Amino acid sequence: KGAAPKCYTMRSWKRRGLCLCFGLGVSAVIYVLGDLFMFWAFTSRSLASTSYFQVSRCPACFGRSLCGKLENRLWMSPLLADMRASFKGVRYAVWDNPTEGRLNVVTKTLAHVDEMSEFDRKLCLYATGERYCAVDEAAKATQGLKRKSRDKELFNGWDSQLNLTDYFTCPSRRLEQKLTGFYDTDGDGLLDFDERRILATTLRVNREPIILQLFPQEQGWPFPRYYGACGRTIVAENGGKKLTDYLKKSWEFRVWLSVQLLQIAFLLTNNNQGWALYFTDIDPENFALSENGQVLAIDVEHVEIIDLWEVQAKGKLENRDYKLENPLCNRDNVNCGSHSIDAMCHGQERDNNFMYVCKSMLGFSHHGRLLNNPPAKAKDTIESLLTECIYYRKGSRQRWQAAKELLHYLVSLLPEGPDQTN
């Protein structure tokens, strides 16, 4: 039978003491190294590697406009510090922009890893009949392909003129012209083979880059600035801390945020540019407060675009009134206000944005809402206005009227300007 280690069979107390000291020393070294690793994992930034962008997947990607400007210039935030965001394909970073200096940005892959893997699998099946293949070659192989596949509709527009009805509920000629301008990189007025596939991939995976380009911050829209794409990653402005980080701030501060949200609802519903943008999903985590104090919508995947000018033109040409009555709501209907998306295409104005903001962002009767725990003197008024804003009933004011009065009332509660440090 094998002999036990000498350290445990020695009868000399001196040697036992040496073994004990050695063991404690090793443990201390491991502990220190562990601390150093955790410190590195949570605090150190690293240069984004070429493989991170997956440029080799193009033209089944989101574009290449930033590739030359990101190499050795994009410092990613620590992975463990971004664990929750990283799970959603979001990484915070510092970009050493060649012309603007250092910028705080976010990189987004726009889909979970398994979602993109499924997209690639379907592309391979459609192009080659195999489950796995070289994605870039498969994307190029779809030109002129007439293969029968149950997933063929996923790749509509790859072989011929892109049909926006495959991607938008309410497409318009103006929308098509704008998209062509964004993705026509050679400036010939047409989308060539690669350009069409890049646009189709973006539309199919996640429309957020489309929204950010169509409605840029520079024109007053409440969205982060869009910088461009490299492979399967887009880069946008870091919109700031999410509104969920401010739910325990002072009452005045939360009122100030609520005012901005209602202003966003009115801007997206009716503006001088002739577009209506309707939220179909909204959550406090979808909004953030930028460094300059502006509330921004930082997750705009679930937004429907309506060209109001085209709707109005059709109404005049066909001599029809497209203004539709709001559906009735009650407290037992959890889907209250969820209008038919198709109906939006025929209505000059809808009240979805007011309902979603009042219900999901402001509603004080739920924890995790900005107007939770109002002061006693304001409680009755806010409750009444929020109820009308959320639960439209026949005979009461329309939602937009209740939202407008709520906005005015909240503004009256504010001092000259809330201290943003409270």
Tally of alpha and pi helices: 16
Low-confidence stretches: 34-44, 145-152, 319-328
How many extended strands? 11
| Helix content range | 40-55%
Percentage of β-strand residues: 5-15%
Order of strands in the sheet with most strands: 1-2-3-4-6-5
User: What is the helix/strand order?
Assistant: HHEHHEHEEHHHHHEEEHEEEEHHHHH
Structural class: alpha+beta
Oligomer: single chain
Largest sheet: number of strands, sense, barrel closure:
6 strands, antiparallel
**Mass-distribution shape:** globular
Computed CA radius of gyration, to the nearest angstrom = 27 Å
**Cα distance spanning the termini:** 72 Å
Average predicted confidence as pLDDT:
79
Defining traits:
422 residues, alpha+beta, 3-stranded antiparallel sheet, 16 helices, 42% helix
Gist of the model:
With 422 residues, this protein is α+β, with helices and mostly antiparallel strands.
Could you explain the architecture of this structure?
- The chain has 422 residues and is an alpha+beta fold.
- Helices cover 42% and strands 12% of the residues.
- It contains 16 helices and eleven strands.
- The chain has helices spanning 6-9, 13-43, 50-53, 67-70, 83-87, 113-128, 135-141, 173-183, 193-205, 208-214, 251-269, 308-317, 341-344, 352-362, 376-390, 399-413; strands at 46-47, 74-76, 90-97, 101-108, 226-230, 233-237, 241-242, 275-279, 287-289, 295-297, 303-307.
Which SSEs are present, and which pair or pack?
Blueprint: H1 6-9, H2 13-43, E1 46-47, H3 50-53, H4 67-70, E2 74-76, H5 83-87, E3 90-97, E4 101-108, H6 113-128, H7 135-141, H8 173-183, H9 193-205, H10 208-214, E5 226-230, E6 233-237, E7 241-242, H11 251-269, E8 275-279, E9 287-289, E10 295-297, E11 303-307, H12 308-317, H13 341-344, H14 352-362, H15 376-390, H16 399-413
Antiparallel strand pairs: 1-2, 2-3, 3-4, 4-6, 5-6, 7-9, 8-11, 9-10
